[in-house]
Design a protein that fits this description.
Blueprint (H helix, E strand, L loop, with lengths): L7 E6 L2 E5 L5 H6 L2 H5 L32
Antiparallel strand pairs: 1-2
């Protein structure tokens, strides 16, 4: 992915990510290199308002809880 230093990856939930960039058309250019993306993602589709995720990933940091309590 050399040359694409402005691409940001944001978790959307339900194993879905959003690729964004401040440079116009940079994401389109990266997505067109499908050979590279096929090794990382199941499928790559353009974002649309209809793309809705039903699950979210949540990280918790708990202090003082014994490991066997999990």
């Amino acid at each position: 992915m050399s040359g694409f230093h402005n691409i940001r990856v944001s978790m959307m939930g339900d194993m879905t990510v959003l690729l964004c960039s401040d440079k116009a058309d940079e994401v389109k250019e990266v997505v067109q290199t499908k050979c590279w993306w096929c090794s990382l993602f199941e499928k790559v589709v353009p974002w649309s308002p209809e793309l809705i995720t039903n699950h979210r990933v949540t990280w918790l940091r708990c202090y003082g809880v014994p490991i066997h309590a999990w």
